[in-house]
Amino acid sequence: MTRLRAALAAACLAASIVSLFAADGPLDRAAAALGVDAIQSLEFEASGRYYQFGQAPAPELPWPAFEVTGYTATLDYARDAVHAKYRRVQVQEPGRSRPHTDQTQDQYAAGGFSWNLTPAPTSMPTNLAERNAELWTSPQGFVKAARAHAAVVKPAPGGGATVTFTIDRVFRYEGVVTAAGDVLRVRTFLDSPVTGDTPAEWRFSEYRDFGGVRFPARIERVIAGLPWYDLTVTAVRTNTATSFTVPPEVAGAPVPVVTDVKTQELAPGVFFVTGTTHNSVIVDQAGGLIVVEAPLNEPRSEAVLAKIRELFPGRTIAGVINTHTHFDHAGGLRTYVDAGVPVITHARNAAYYARAWAEPRTIVPDRLAASKRKPEFRTFTTKLVLPDARNPIEIHAIAGSGHNDAFAMVFLPKAGLLVEGDAWTPAATRPATPSPLWVNLHENIQRLGLGVQRIAPLHGTLQTIDDLRAAIVR
After folding, report:
1. Same domain, 300 and 318
2. Would you call the peptide bond into 365 cis, given omega within 30 degrees of 0 as the criterion?
3. DSSP β-bridge partners for residue 314
4. Which tens digits make up the pLDDT trace of 314-363?
């Protein structure tokens, strides 16, 4: 991005940057039509819908929808900085009972750092590439970046062109420019620990004049082939951006620590693995160790595997249980696959993982990308028992949850311990209205007649069944 900043500073001299095809006309027309040389920053207001990538309610369903209001995005091309703030309210799909979610998102990226205000600054390094892409996929930003990176311009029938360039040797951008100079769409790839090199496309339509600036009135984003954003633009301003600094707590710790592994023995041979936002559980069975959940990413899985080798030297891991396909709970599975560990998951999830893990991994290569080991799955639909004299394991599908349709909880009957993720996340303050997910979890425990005494949530600290019962009292 530093190289891009230097290049953009000389953008007014970049008319001589031509493509391999010597077809600089389309970029010049686009720069003139969009007022590129006079724009150092652009701010737009919008409303519409947002769809939460990686959180589909079933592996074959779209990302869940949120209504978006008050969306204001500031794209500061001169400083390589982005700020987006908006309110989002989750859409309640027919037949699905979700907790009411009403949040304000306040998102920043600058100087190679990405963070949210929640309200304190919170590092969000995995969102940096996406937020940088917001700069260079926007119509004016795309033309600026294309002129600064010796874009390849391929003429198209009718006077338009396809424009491609690469930033930082990794992020390739390809856009379509019309003969009139409008940018119709821009495609790039973003990394995901589940879906690998994930295609992301920005689509622009209904161009019109906003106070002297030509800009699209509709912006659509698509990721992994599914809707991501659908925004209607209501106002545009240029050269109004003010500088902001990276918060010291973000600059000092740009990447949250996911390798801190703490363990607590909950019963003989049963360990609660904590130390970050997402937990796991290790169960020692005679036939090998069973790990419940491989969250976040490869660094987290590597750290957990190292702790397992320390606690159980020479022991085999016989399986890793996955509760559902949400990316924060499945991002570390590939590391176990590379180690030859079978993945135990709901039958609806296996085909999704097999397809997703076959995608290329060039942006952030991982162990499995190098070894190309084929995943081994062990699946279930309603229940799977892993017998053992000391620590038998029961895996039960959670029926009727609004959170996910291929959703599992794990019960250790001899320890009276339930392991669950997202069905109940203990809150410091009890809400006035209990989450329907919490009520549903309790209903499933009762329906199955499970003798639950304690609950090891995959977010949060160890709880008791009485804590859950208290949480669902209205």
Report:
1. yes
2. no
3. none
4. 999 999 999 999 999 999 999 999 999 999 999 999 999 999 999 999 99
pLDDT per position as a tens digit, 239-257? 999 999 999 999 998 898 9
Q: Which candidate, 252, 133, 267, places its Cα nearest to that of 189?
A: 133
Contact 234, 46 (CB under 8 A): yes
CA–CA separation, 76 vs 295, rounded Å?
A: 34
Task: Give the rounded distance of the alpha carbon of 378 from its chain centre.
Answer: 26
Is 190:130 a contact under the CB 8 Å cutoff?
yes
- Residue 257 in any domain: the answer is no
Check: CB of residue 300 under 8 Å from CB of residue 276: yes
Closest CA to 422 of 343, 302, 323: 323
Q: How does the average pLDDT of the chain come out, rounded?
A: 94
Write out the residue range of the structural domain in which residue 230 sits: 2-252
Q: Residues 6 or more apart from 339 whose CB is under 8 A from it?
A: 305, 317
**Among 74, 72, 122, 83, CA closest to 247:** 122
Structure tokens of 83? 């700020």
Distance CA 293, CA 279 (A): 8
Boundary (domain end) residue, out of 233, 252, 271: 252
Q: At what angle do helices 139-148 and 2-9 cross, to 10 degrees?
A: 90
pLDDT in the model for residue 120: 95
